[in-house]
Design a protein that fits this description.
This protein has 12 helices and 8 strands.
């Protein structure tokens, strides 16, 4: 084979992969589901872990009191036993939701998360002045918040853990103005928002725009929960369960469509609050599984509509 023919063949071979890639369809948009231990209240951690695969989730989110007791149970059993439990169930722990610690008190929890194979913590922002700030006050508080958070997000960067801060009523990160200010002034790739549509029930139409303002890099976690007075007041269980996707009235198609648009790659959590806090949402794991799979079926249907 002469040099000219050899070069032609090599050139054709170099082009072939590009041609093949052009014919391969883009991967379908999918959501990465994490199972919240808070749905199980004070039930044994082993029972919760056993449900992760059953409910088609990739990992578990461990919650403490007052919403659940699994974090305390894990502390009692020890990290080695916890890791063994995860391994036996072919799953992992990705998240520690640690509201009692707040934004500025979770350094040790981030170390614990890293030690046990996780990569995300969830907490609220707390207040940096007046609650639910808007306009210039929201801007001021967000800047002050990040200044105070600096040593903590630097630790998160060192550990490879992300701090997800929930937009929550009666806190700094609450109104759409503060969420937009957060997106503008966030100094770290290891800080983002645990986006909670149920705390934006007065601003439903703004949710897609806020998702776009944040972008995939600042959305490591997304709650699938609908606002309901039954999250705080004792009501009929059927009404309480309407917090779950597909059981209430919130249309998730525009939300999921916008998540697809921005290339969302974070975790989503189907979630609700029982009344009183700290009890399972239903008495048994089988009952919980039934309602969660029904909600998951609705979410999967929404994904199909935007795929």
């Amino acid at each position: 084979m002469n040099r000219r023919n050899a070069c032609k063949l090599l050139g054709a071979g170099a082009m072939l992969p590009a041609v093949l890639r052009a014919e391969i369809p883009a991967p379908r948009f999918q959501l990465r589901h994490v199972l919240s231990s808070a749905l199980y209240g004070d039930l044994p951690t082993a029972d919760v872990i056993a449900q992760v695969s059953r409910l088609k989730c990739e990992s578990v989110d461990i919650w403490p009191k007052v919403h659940a007791t699994q974090r305390e149970q894990v502390a009692e059993m020890g990290d080695e036993a916890f890791q063994k439990l995860l391994s036996e169930n072919h799953t992992s722990m990705s998240v520690s939701t640690c509201y009692p610690l707040g934004s500025f008190g979770q350094d040790d929890e981030m170390r614990w998360v890293k030690k046990n194979g996780g990569y995300l913590t969830v907490a609220a922002s707390g207040s940096m002045g007046d609650k639910d700030p808007r306009g210039a006050e929201a801007e001021r508080q967000v800047k002050a918040y990040f200044e105070k958070l600096k040593p903590h997000y630097e630790l998160a960067e060192e550990l490879g853990v992300t701090m997800a801060i929930e937009n929550h009523a009666n806190s700094m990160l609450s109104h759409p103005d503060s969420i937009r200010a957060f997106a503008e002034h966030n100094p770290s790739k290891h800080v983002g928002i645990a986006f909670a549509p149920h705390h934006l029930h007065d601003y439903i139409d703004e949710i897609p725009g806020l998702i776009r303002d944040l972008g995939a890099d600042q959305l490591p976690f997304f709650y699938f929960q609908e606002h309901s007075p039954a999250s705080k007041e004792l009501m009929d269980k059927k009404i309480e369960l309407q917090q779950l996707p597909g059981l209430g009235t919130l249309d998730y198609v525009p939300i999921i469509g916008t998540l697809k648009e921005i290339g969302f790659r974070g975790l989503v959590e189907i979630f609700m609050h029982p009344v009183p806090r700290g009890i399972p949402i239903l008495p048994t794991v089988d009952e919980i599984a039934e309602v969660m799979l029904k909600s998951r079926e609705y979410v999967d249907g929404c994904v199909e509509q935007v795929a």
